[in-house]
Amino acid sequence: MLARIDEFAYEKSLLINIGDEKGALLDAAVQRVQPALALELGTYCGYSALRIARSAPAARIYSIELAEANADNARQIWAHAGVADRITCVVGTIGDGGRTLDVLTARHGFAAGTLDFLFLDHDKDAYLSDLQSILDRGWLHPGSVVVADNVKVPGAPRYREYMRAQQGTHWDTVEHKTHVEYQRLLSDLVLESTYLG
């Protein structure tokens, strides 16, 4: 499924999922963490959740998506790939006043210290506020890893500034220099941040 999506993006029409080059960085981070519980913000077509599922076969994965149509497409792709039993798409947004966070708590068992891995690939302006909302719930634990895509293009400057300011105190961040998905002309950044507590 991943290869077919990549092929479509290269040959037919550009897609805005993480893509194959940056996807390898996501894979490596997930493989290091081997999360029991992973959360991604921004489902789109379900591509990155597929990569997480492949890299961490024991993980339970939750994906938050604002658009119901995207959620429906992703669920079909996950079913076709045989991983629908491990990935749940929740339609909503972290910035909705706590409703989606409450659903994750009440229906899906999110609690203090349970979240091992978080992937950010949604509204770039919401990266920092959504991370703060998750921190406020206490779901992360020392050693939890947050991977953020598109930090340079289209850019998440407030998020990057925050991680730089917190370096060595609450976070240990590595900035991976890479390219915008499915091409080699525009450079991009993927941030991989380990929570120190």
From TrEMBL:
Keywords: Methyltransferase, S-adenosyl-L-methionine, Transferase. CDD domains: AdoMet_MTases. GO terms for molecular function: O-methyltransferase activity. The keyword Iron does not apply. GO terms for biological process: methylation. This is SAM-dependent methyltransferase.
